[in-house]
Amino acid sequence: MFGCTLLLSSTTLVFADTGDTLKDVKSKGYIQVGVNGDLFGFGKADQKGEWKGLDVDTARAVAVAIFGDYKDKVRYTPLTAKTRFTALQSKEIDLLTRNATQTLSRDTALGLDFVQVNYYDGQGFMIPKALGVKSAHELDGATVCVLPGTTTEQNAADFFRSNDMEWKTVTIESTAELSQAFFAGRCDVMTSDASQLAGIRASAPQPDQYTILPEIISKEPLAPAVRHGDNQWKDIVNYAVLAMINAEELGINSENVDEMLKSNNPKIQRFLGVTPGNGEALGLDEKFAYNIIKKVGNYGEVFERNVGVNTPLGIERGLNALWTNGGLMYSPPFK
């Protein structure tokens, strides 16, 4: 299996990575990253072919941690919800940053390791305003567009069953094709992560004709994933994400990071590599965190330019604010 070991039990089939992903990535000179490909604000190429989105910037942060830059150091593989985990297991990709929810079964039966959450989300429902519905509890008998093989499908089934409501599904594997089906009126409702609904609405022919209902029916911690068994690679990806969060906590951003190199604060000195140790511990350059913030930005910058209130998605920080501002974003110490 080219560096993968099959670990068998009575209930699971786990793919454990016994290889050295960092060595492989350095050898070929880039990271192969699995992304959505169709989700505005998170992972989609623009008309010029430039990849943009929160998940794209997350992948770039990992590349910068390793290579010092992301230009020509990241290659993107668009994946569907059905193929994303298989692509990671089979080593078609080195890293998955594709709005994937961390769950117990994915951590165990699929042989994956999720790192720090890069977006806390929850599942919602989007409808045409013309439907006249104000609450998800009014959706009895609705036809619902949903991606197959996702936590979304199960969550929706649980919601309708627990509320004694009937529903019919329209399932299409591609996000883009499913969205087209919804906009064409093949279903009354689309259900997915609220962030994904916001991205789909933003790319609609007439976005103001659609509304996202207020109910959030699940917890969806979205996080990058790697193969189980390569601890160094997991640590690198994890601390690349955490570096962006920690920088925001410390008040460091892409514009002031050079000035912050002169800070007398021991936490900032360690974080930016002025005081060595963190880079060596990860097998990276001591300035890996500095490079990430300089080239990609802190978490707040990444959030605001891709999905924030001044973008077509118009998403408030909410749960994705720092813990000091009532959110869940929190970094362990860099020491």
Could you walk me through the main structural features you see in this protein, from its secondary elements to its overall organization?
There is one protein chain. By secondary structure, the chain is an alpha/beta fold. The protein is 34% helix and 19% strand. It has helices at residues 21-28, 54-67, 84-89, 104-108, 151-162, 175-183, 194-202, 231-250, 257-260, 266-271, 278-282, 288-295, 299-306, and strands spanning 4-8, 13-17, 31-35, 44-45, 51-52, 74-78, 95-96, 112-114, 119-121, 123-128, 142-146, 167-171, 189-193, 210-212, 220-222, 225-227. A hairpin with a 5-residue loop joins β4 (44-45) and β5 (51-52). α2 (54-67) crosses α8 (231-250) and α2 runs antiparallel to α12. The two termini are 37 Å apart.
List keywords for this structure.
335 residues; alpha/beta; five-stranded mixed beta sheet; three-stranded parallel beta sheet; 16 strands; globular
Q: What order do the helices and strands come in, and which of them pair?
A:
Blueprint: E1 4-8, E2 13-17, H1 21-28, E3 31-35, E4 44-45, E5 51-52, H2 54-67, E6 74-78, H3 84-89, E7 95-96, H4 104-108, E8 112-114, E9 119-121, E10 123-128, E11 142-146, H5 151-162, E12 167-171, H6 175-183, E13 189-193, H7 194-202, E14 210-212, E15 220-222, E16 225-227, H8 231-250, H9 257-260, H10 266-271, H11 278-282, H12 288-295, H13 299-306
Parallel strand pairs: 3-6, 3-7, 11-12, 11-13
Antiparallel strand pairs: 1-2, 4-5, 8-16, 9-15, 10-13, 10-14
Helix pairs in contact: 2-8, 2-12, 8-12
